[in-house]
Amino acid sequence: MKQLQKRGFFLLHLSVFIAGFTGVLGRLIELDSALLVWHRMAWAAAIMALYLLVKKERVHYSLHDTLKMSGVGVLLCLHWVFFYASIKTSNVSIGVVCFSLVGFFTALFEPIINKHRFSAQEFLFSILTLCGVYLIFQFDIRYRLGILLGIISSALYSLFAIANQRVGKQYEAKNMLFWEMFGGLIVLTCLLPLYNAITPIERFLPSGMDYPYMAFMVIFCTIGLCLLQIIVLRKIDAFTVNLTYNLEPVYSILLAMLIFNEYKELNPSFFLGLSLIIISVVLQTWSKLKITLPKENRHHSKS
Question: How far is residue 280 CA from its own chain's centroid?
């Protein structure tokens, strides 16, 4: 059990490291946020469909099962649209830091959806993250629209992670990923005319360096990352996964500093807020390990 727990945490942190590239790629790819997500899901769905057909693995499910998996994909799709809109409206650092509120929203949503007891400890850890985001929110009025979009994005991802954990246990990860991508793609395609009416889309196809950036995003940050997340959520609870993903800003901000020189746009209150977010992740990870390891030791002493 201890070995499985360690493997689960290793895969979790590997997925967070990979996720750190998504924000930077979102700014590098010169497509509107909705079109970026549309191409991301279309490419991923096509690759997964080809893989499943070549391997002759199961693709067809009942309508009920298909709708369940596709519905999870719709939540992921909406999260991505708001996430990239946040980055393009502000910058990479703001967009990824707002993602840290996922733990706060999960602490609120998960007890209601999964019908279990509310955890005061999880809520307190989340409040620490909320204080960090509040400090960041205060540092520059120019980025408040981006912050608002980022907050909506984190709430949607929280719902996605909870739904993914509930539904993902019933299906193979590869099949789940295909139907998530396909379901999100279909719904986003239907919403694009409305989106275009509100926010006119300048360009519908990638160009130039968009293609290699998109390929990297699809192969590593979509297919690879989603498969890792599905596997991790079978080993570790959704709250721990979501709160650990608060470390994603650290990787993304470091990359953004190197590529876009974003450190020139950030002030001490931003880094103080980021420090509070990191502390909340460390405390949560420590508390989970503290609870798990004594249980395992008692189990081994009995055997």
Answer: 18
- Burial pattern 62-86, b for ≥16 Cβ within 10 A else e, equals eeeeeebbbbbbbbbbbbbbbbbbb
Cα–Cα distance between 110 and 106 in angstroms, integer?
Answer: 5
- A 10 A CB-CB count for 174 gives 18
**What does each C-alpha distance from 186 to 214, 257, 273, 297 come to in angstroms?**
19, 36, 38, 49
- Encoded amino acid at 273, one letter: G
Name residues whose C-beta falls within 8 Å of residue 10's C-beta, 6 or more positions apart in sequence.
none
| Residues whose CB is less than 8 angstroms from the CB of residue 42 and which lie 6 or more positions away in sequence, other chains included | 185
Cβ(121)–Cβ(243) under 8 Å? no
Give the tens place of pLDDT for each residue, 159-195.
998 888 888 777 887 888 899 999 999 999 999 999 8
| All structural domains of the chain with their residue ranges | 2-302
CA 200, 205, 207, 213 torsion-angle sign = positive
